[in-house]
Design goal:
Elements (H helix, E strand, L loop, with lengths): L4 E5 L10 H6 L2 E2 L3 E2 L10 E5 L13 E3 L5 E3 L5 E2 L11 H11 L8 H16 L5 H5 L2 H23 L15 E6 L5 H13 L1 H5 L1 E7 L2 H15 L8 E6 L19 E7 L12 H14 L1 E11 L3 H16 L4 E4 L19 E4 L4 H10 L5 E10 L12 E4 L4 E3 L2 E7 L6 E5 L18 E5 L14 E2 L5 E6 L5
Parallel strand pairs: 8-9, 8-11, 9-10, 11-12, 19-21
Antiparallel strand pairs: 1-4, 2-7, 3-4, 5-6, 12-15, 13-15, 14-15, 16-18, 16-20, 17-18, 18-19, 20-22
Helix pairs in contact: 2-8, 3-5, 3-11, 5-6, 6-8, 9-10
């Protein structure tokens, strides 16, 4: 991609790059130049010009006001992490169902729709908590949510489905595969599973049985509308959806959600749900842990429980705490992303947390809204944990296997990244002069990748703050599992 331009929208009122800090979080590091441009209407743009020579310093984007309409920019250096590919876009059946329910033409980013997306974003980020029925009852806000946030969150769920060994396993006997979507909203996770199986296994698609649970009747109505629109071509023998009205946070017990006929769920999903529950409780983490314990009772021994959350620090750290509580009870093990079942090392520092960040191809409607509103959704941020009861893990655990939990950072004369496994959370670096064919795979590291590293220097020492373990010329480095398929 060297030599190309990346177009970045400016905030309409402030005349500054929208969420500039987010570019650093979307695979950019301080090595790229922002050139001076004149404002453009209706969306103002600046260009990030690719540079081949590394620059270490980070400069602030300074504004020099020429007039109320013209703004000049000083240099701001950024570079894109080119070690990670991009996940494909949403399927045609999902887009067809979504546009049928919305009643919009393709690419129909109307001013009303864009305004609704901007308003929802403000509420989600500044006015939390917000209950789904507060916006799904409003037809304009509902359209904004379905057009923008629904496809974004559905893509996140499908990224995690790609990690599972089976989703769900409906081959045991003649019974259908059972899925429980807790806090389903408009059916984001339910539709993600439906579409996932439709694209990959038609037999299991027709045998699918999903129970979608939410306290909002408006959300359940949208869930059923989207489900019907998607599976209509399959006819009356298609997958089964049971929409169940229940306030999980207030129900005295959840026995009504237990699987029928003694069968258990093959897959249980809480997508952007757990952090919304028990916020006013004396100990929200304990209450959430208790809920997940109950759900684990209903999970088949070869099933998976997915908890997907926003990549916010406070929310993610609470998810780490729930994870630690469940592992302490020995009720489950972590399938992914962790390569350890010991307490999460990210909790050792108050400002640390572990989250994912994966590029994707946004549908045209999301791209059109981004252009008008000034957002950027070229990558998806989230935190998650996948739990199982059979001890299965995404890769076999080994001392030399690590999960990369940061971007690969280019520094003066070296590169560094943070890793995590059963032995700890070390910062690992390689000096540029130490590059060899044996450690060349280090340059392909990216957040979320699983890597193998042999013979790190500094292992086992009494290390202190700022210690960096070194990859030397003789160190063997392998990229075991990238976050996206080749």
């Amino acid at each position: 991609m060297l030599g190309q331009h990346l177009v970045v929208p400016l905030h309409r009122q402030l005349n500054v790059p929208v969420c500039l800090h987010n570019y650093l979080g979307h695979g950019f590091t301080p090595e790229q130049k922002v050139t001076t441009v004149e404002p453009v209407t209706p969306v103002q743009l600046v260009k990030l010009v690719w540079q081949t020579t590394p620059t270490i310093r980070t400069q602030r984007a300074k504004l020099t006001e020429r007039s109320k309409r013209h703004v000049a920019y000083s240099t701001f250096v950024l570079t894109f992490n080119q070690t990670m590919g991009t996940i494909g876009g949403l399927s045609e059946p999902i887009l067809r169902a979504l546009h049928e329910v919305l009643g919009l033409p393709r690419g129909g980013a109307t001013p009303a729709l864009c305004g609704a997306v901007a308003e929802l974003s403000r509420r989600f980020t500044h006015d939390r908590p917000i209950r789904p029925d507060a916006y799904l009852e409003d037809p304009v806000l509902r359209a904004g949510y379905l057009a923008y946030f629904f496809p974004v969150n559905l893509a996140k769920v499908q990224m995690l489905l790609s990690e599972l060994p089976s989703v769900p396993d409906a081959d045991r006997g003649e019974r259908p595969g059972r899925v429980l979507d807790v806090g389903c909203g408009p059916g984001t996770a339910a539709l993600a599973v439906l579409d996932w199986l439709h694209q990959r296994d038609p037999f299991r698609f027709h045998a699918l049985h999903v129970v979608a649970v939410d306290h909002s009747r408006a959300a359940l109505r949208e869930c059923k509308r989207l489900w019907t629109a998607y599976q209509r071509p399959a006819g009356p023998s298609g997958p089964c959806l049971v929409a169940h009205h229940c306030d999980v946070a207030r129900a005295p017990d959840l026995r009504e959600l237990a699987p029928r006929d003694g069968d258990r769920y093959d897959l249980i999903i809480l997508a952007n749900t757990l952090n919304e529950l028990f916020r006013d409780a004396r100990d929200p983490v304990l209450r959430r842990t208790t809920l997940v314990r109950r759900l684990l009772d209903w999970l088949d021994n070869s099933g998976s429980l997915i908890i997907l959350e926003p990549a916010l620090r406070s929310v993610t750290r609470e998810l780490h705490e729930v994870r630690d509580n469940l592992l302490a009870d020995r009720l489950c093990t972590v399938y992914s992303p962790c390569l350890r079942d010991r307490p999460c090392p990210a909790l050792a520092k108050s400002d640390d947390w572990c989250h994912e960040e994966r590029p994707w191809t946004a549908p045209s409607l999301v791209v059109a809204v981004d252009r008008q509103v000034g957002f950027i959704k070229d990558a998806l941020k989230f935190s998650y944990v996948i739990l199982r009861k059979d001890g299965r893990t995404i890769v076999p655990r080994a001392p030399g296997l690590f999960r990369v939990v940061s971007e690969l950072r280019k520094m003066k004369g070296e590169k560094r990244a943070w890793l995590c496994n059963e032995l700890g959370r070390p910062e690992v670096g390689r000096l540029d002069r130490e590059y060899t064919a044996a450690n060349a795979a280090f340059d392909q590291w990216h957040r979320g990748a699983i890597v193998r590293v042999e013979e790190l220097t500094g292992r086992g020492r009494n290390i202190g703050p700022g210690h960096v373990e070194r990859i030397t010329r003789d160190t063997s480095v392998t990229l075991v599992r990238p976050v996206l398929p080749d």
